[in-house]
Design a protein that fits this description.
alpha/beta, 45% helix, seven-stranded parallel β-sheet, 7 helices, 179 residues, Rossmann fold
Amino acid sequence: MNICVFLSAADLAETYTRPARELARLIGQGGHTLVWGGSNVGLMKVVADGVHASGGRLMGVSVHFLVDKVRPGVDDMVIAQDLAERKRLLLAKADAVVIMVGGTGTLDEATEILELKKHGHTDMPVVLLNTAGFYDGLKEQFRRMEDEGFLPRPLSELMFFADEPVDAMTYLKESLGAR
């Protein structure tokens, strides 16, 4: 599988890096490819390091204004002109998406894939990895959107909520029939 991971490029506490390393190990050991923003900093670096060390492939999609943060020596790297093209390329290269902890950029990427799913433009599985309850408020907001009629499809068709990386990978494997 080509697994696109949306996540922070910030340096974060062990609360967030431990699950990131675990997800990376599962991706790599499964022989999968990480599709990510291509940065060699923060949580992005943690995941890329883990996937590479566990035998997985690295496919990065960066953007011109971040070329100074690009990870060297990856299997495939593309430099997009802008953030819109970056999102389009990340999703075009992916079979599945995992949304990890992050800031406004991660939320922007998450809403992009959810909008595409909502309108039937993709059926790839999407997992929101809710590490340490980071997305509890967002999960509640999505449920309110569903309950009050703002989502034309059931929330369960748009994304799967996982608390642990192993649950995220199990869902992706079951959704795509992968090993």
